[in-house]
Amino acid sequence: MAKHVEPLPVAVLSRSERKQHTRERLREAALDLLSRGQSFPGLSLREVTREAGVVPTAFYRHFRDLDELGLSLVEEAGLVLRRLLREARQAGLPTEDIIRSSVRIYSAYVRAHPRQFRLAASERAGGSPLLRQAIRSEVAHFVREMAQDLRLLGFRADLPTADLELICSLVVNTMLGAAGEILDLPEGQGQAARELEERFVGQLRLIFLGAERWRATSASGP
Amino acid sequence: MAKHVEPLPVAVLSRSERKQHTRERLREAALDLLSRGQSFPGLSLREVTREAGVVPTAFYRHFRDLDELGLSLVEEAGLVLRRLLREARQAGLPTEDIIRSSVRIYSAYVRAHPRQFRLAASERAGGSPLLRQAIRSEVAHFVREMAQDLRLLGFRADLPTADLELICSLVVNTMLGAAGEILDLPEGQGQAARELEERFVGQLRLIFLGAERWRATSASGP
DNA sequence: GTTTTAAGTAAACATTTGTTCACTCAAAGC
DNA sequence: GCTTTGAGTGAACAAATGTTTACTTAAAAC
């Protein structure tokens, strides 16, 4: 008749700390379910609370409904994305083959944050209209930052910002598409992973090849 | 006390015709729900049968479960996609600005088959693993056909097929992404639609600019 | 030390879900 | 014409869903 295993030394936590902790558990639970093949509109509130080890009604102490939880997850995914950019910025430009090494780094980063990338990649087009819109807005934000970075790097300094953003938007679309496929690889498929990476490298190369020859659109003049 | 409105002159149909007809109603119902904001994993069997005007149990006379229905929808979407290619082939090359006019045609085609394109665009990354895989396979098929078409048109005749497919895969990714956004436009937003189209045209231009300069990968030699 | 507050619990609810079973009844097969 | 077949019905089920309502109980406020 073991009643209840005390999950953690709980007494040391303040009330608000405890609250934030279960809130986190709920978010984690949803993320786990999502990366276990579920998709967001297929989630149920009770499922999430069950996974979090919490009674269903406790959910309402933290979120109005599942959509609100989802939005907070999207926000976090946006942070993860932008952190990627920041790290890439600090790493500076590698010497040799910049695209290939970027893809390697990106690939590792995706695998290090599978749940956020799966969320971003798979609910970007599917899912509830609310989440979709939120993700689009995060992606747009990311694209703007990336374009700004290209500008700081002096890449195609002659182009107007809108053109740089057009290029970056293409890159990001390709990146997120690749993320979805990377995460679908049945782990340990080294060969398939390498082919995928090869294609990804090729596509980015193609894009930048186009970007180098790109001539400014007429949008900059009256 | 109106019992039941006789929906159609039913007596003239043979048994198998009637069966195929309700099967079609079920598929139509699912497509309608999907393009009304629902996503596939959020669909319920009863919901579909309700929309189709049929009792829930009738569903099992046509499909084992929702996944089977979904697969048949994906198959149809694949047909629609490939029909697009065939029509483009017959239309031949327009004289002036080939990319812009292609985008116009594509855009109209997407709006003419919104449900199939929404399915393809939104369940390609999200949704159930089964549907996702099926859609990926349809898309791959489409990419191969498109590459073959480029070959027949004499575009970059020097490149190996794998490279043409790499290019086409990039194009198709961009196309499907654009389809998702086109369908999300709150109808009547002419300005937004034009901006979207402009970006779409730009990205394709960029891709083909890169494709023209592309140099064959080393994969062709031993 | 007493009172207040609020995170989490427990029970109960009205719906909705997927699936079963036995049934009708009209077309198809003979 | 009689029999067989099978698409669609209707009732019933166990299970799961979202949400409300009243409750415990320990930290926070005084």
TrEMBL record, chains A, B:
A GO molecular function assigned to this protein is: DNA binding
Xref: PROSITE patterns: HTH_TETR_2
Q: Which domain of life is it from?
A: Bacteria
Q: Please name the SUPFAM superfamilies in this protein's record.
A: Homeodomain-like
| Pfam families associated with the record | TetR_C_46, TetR_N
Q: Which parts of the sequence belong to the HTH tetR-type domain?
A: 20-81
Return the annotated DNA-binding positions: 44-63
Q: What does the UniProt keyword field contain?
A: DNA-binding, Transcription, Transcription regulation
What InterPro entries does the annotation carry?
DesT_TetR_C, Homeodomain-like_sf, HTH_TetR, HTH_transcr_repressor_FabR
Q: What is this protein called?
A: Transcriptional regulator, TetR family
- Which species is this UniProt entry from? Solimonas aquatica
